[in-house]
Each structure stands twice: as C-alpha cells, then as structure tokens.
C-alpha cells in the first residue's frame, strides 16, 4: 500500500512539474484577469513574451515572477490603471508601455534592467516607482508622454545603445547617469524649460539636444559622429572636456553669450555657429586646430581662433557687426573663403577664393610673360611697318627712273638708244672709262676701248 502511495505522489509531482514547465515556457502568454496571473505565480523565470490584453482588468498585480527572458508588452489598453510587481527584476527583451491613457500607477520597485524600456503615448503616472534601482537599459525611448521628470535612472557606468526622448512637451528635467551611448542620443520637442543633465556621459556616437533651457555635459570627451545643440535659452553651453567631434558641430538659435569648449581640438565636419544672438566671439574655442569647414553667422565682432591650423573645406563668415575679416587667415582655408560684415577694418578683400601662395605667384608670372609677348609682338609689327614703308619708297624711286626719259649719270646726259631692248639700257660715254670702274648698280666690268664704246647694263 505504501508503495502505491509513493508511486502516486511521484506521478503527481511529475505532472505538476510538467504543468509548471509548460506555464513558465511559452512563446506568448496573455494576461487578462486574476486566473491568468495565478498561473504565472509559481514561475520565478518565464521564457517567452508576456502581453497584457487590451481588455484586461483595470488592476494588474503580478507576484512571484522575477525574470522574463523575452518581452513584456502592455499596449492599446484604455482600461488599465495600475500595473505593479514587487518581484520583477530583469526583462531581457523590450518593456513596452504604449497608448495607456489611464495608467496612473506604475510600481516596479525591484526592477533592475531590460533590453529596451519604451514609453509611447502614456501619461505620467501619479504613482510610480521604477527608477531607483535601474542599472542597465540598452535602449531608452520616451515619446509623446506627459512626463515632467525623467530622473533617477542610475545607469551609472553603463553603456546604452540608444537614447531617444522626443515630443514630451511637459518634460522639465532629464537627469540620466549612463557613461557611454554607442549609437545615438536625441532629446528634442520638450518644454522650453527643460534642463538636460548627463553628468557621467563621456562618449556618444551621435548627440542631438534641441530646445530647452540648459545643457550640462561636464565629462563628455568625444562624439564620433555629429553633435547638435539648438534652441537652448541658457547663456552658456558647456562641454569643457570635449576634445573631438567626428562629424558636424552645430550650435544654432541659442541664447548663449559664452561657449565653453576650450579642450576641443579636432572637428572632422563643419563648425556651424548660426544665429546665436549674444555670441560675439569664439574665445570658447581657443584650442580648435583642425576643422572640416567653418560656417559662422551672427553678431560676431571677433572670430580669432589662435590655434587654428587648417580648414579642410570652405569657410563662410557673415556678421551683423563690425569685423576684421583677417581674424581667420585665408591661407588656412583650402576651399573658398567668404567674409561679409557690416563693416570691416581689413584692407583685404572680404571675398577671397583661397588661392595658395604658389598659385598667386604662378598667376603673376603668367601675367608678366603675357605682357612680354604682347610687347614683342608690337615691336615686330612696328618694324614690319617701317620696312614696308622703305620698300614702297624704293619701288617708287625705281619707277621714276624707268619712266623718266632723261637721267643724269655723273655730269653726262643719258639718252635712249634704239638698241635698248628687253629693259636693258645702252649708254654711250664720251672719253675713256677708268680701267677698273663700275657703273652704279651694275656688276659688269667696263669694256676696254676708246671713246664712243658702248657698255651694256643688265
């Protein structure tokens, strides 16, 4: 009998174990009411996805469960007011709270980490306890909420992949403790009074903070991609430890009168400072050495960058105030350098096309050579005209000789002899020729003989 009892007990325990295993390992489990929750109560670890039904009870309290190896989703539920668990600790996948218009109590006091924590179109709960122990979130996404505060997530020393806080018009404080952001951080569309504090952030792949009153980045050292800060009311934007930006550095439409980035050396993209109504000088960029480009538009009176060695692209400076356009030497700009100001104390042209010294020297040499060639051409033309005039004069004189029937040779009169033919003239010269004389213009030697001899000119 005892043996039968033991066998029966073993079978019951085995069946219970099988049932528990089935309950704790499922592709998707839907929680609609207390009975569904009870089935999970014995599971410390659940493998799969847990979904809160869209028509669930208003209050969902989930005891016992500690770890979800998968996702936890509560979405599109207009009944849910309370979601709590005193034991939830780790959710390896995504925690999604989406479109829960009446959620007023969110209590997860022992929650530590999740792959992604995503709030989308939810109000700020009047009771919430889920931030104090959080240590690791790979992705934090907060969209379209009425949250006023997003603070207290410890995350100290942790690395985050993505931070996205977008379109939360009542948000006033963001205070997060992560150390690195391996992909992108975007904070935009918040209250104009938003204060962004990222006190431990040392590295971000891409960082965009648009609109708010203050930005605090005391330990940020490098941004591998682009960095944008815009529409910040504070008179100071401070990143005193920043040394490198791998993309564009864009600070625009801010109220700042001071820029504190005095460790920044290299910006691979362009430095764009545009429409910062109180920013008159660049003294906060005193160590900047190499930039991909410069785009400075605003009320600048001094654009001196004492450490600047090279602008790899174009430089554009446009100021509404008096400005010396030689503050930045055009010889440092490899592209086009353009400077416009209300007035300028520089004798240099405010528009310079970035020609190197060698290029300018080549142009000067080319001009000199061209002028020399032009002068030589004029000289040759003048000599040709002079020679042509002399030849014309000689031809005219020869024409007169042929046409004139009387021509004096010495003191003797020349007469036309009937024997002349084919243009050859025969002269009779009385007396005796000198033995070795030549008639002018003739190559023949005089014939020997006495007076009356004839000499033919050919």
Shape: elongated
Beta-strand segment tally: 35
> Unreliable stretches, pLDDT < 50, 5 or more residues?
4-20, 346-354, 401-458
> Mind summarizing the main beta sheet?
21 strands, mixed
Radius of gyration: 50 Å
The helicity comes to: 10-25%
Percentage of residues in strands? 35-45%
* Structural class by sheet pairing and helices: alpha/beta
How many helical elements? Answer: 3
Cα-to-Cα separation, first versus last residue: 167 Å
Q: What would you note in describing this structure?
A:
The protein has 458 residues and is an alpha/beta fold. It has a domain of 112 residues. The protein has 3 helices and 35 strands. It has a 21-stranded mixed β-sheet that branches. It is elongated and about 130 Å long. The termini are far apart. The C terminus is likely disordered.
Key words describing this protein structure:
single chain, 458 residues, alpha/beta, 21-stranded mixed sheet, four-stranded parallel sheet, 3 helices, 35 strands, disordered C terminus
Summarize the topology.
Layout: H1 2-24, E1 25-31, H2 34-40, E2 45-52, E3 59-61, E4 67-69, E5 72-75, E6 82-84, E7 90-98, E8 105-107, E9 113-120, E10 127-129, E11 136-143, E12 149-151, E13 159-168, E14 173-175, E15 180-190, E16 195-197, E17 203-204, E18 207-212, E19 214-216, E20 222-223, E21 227-232, E22 236-238, E23 244-245, E24 249-252, E25 258-260, E26 266-274, E27 290-298, E28 310-311, E29 315-319, E30 337-340, E31 351-352, H3 357-403, E32 408-409, E33 412-413, E34 425-428, E35 454-457
Parallel strand pairs: 1-2, 2-4, 2-5, 3-6, 4-7, 5-7, 6-8, 7-9, 8-10, 9-11, 11-13, 12-14, 13-15, 14-16, 15-17, 15-18, 16-19, 17-20, 18-21, 20-23, 21-24, 22-25, 23-26, 24-26, 26-27, 27-28, 27-29, 29-30
Antiparallel strand pairs: 30-31, 32-33, 34-35
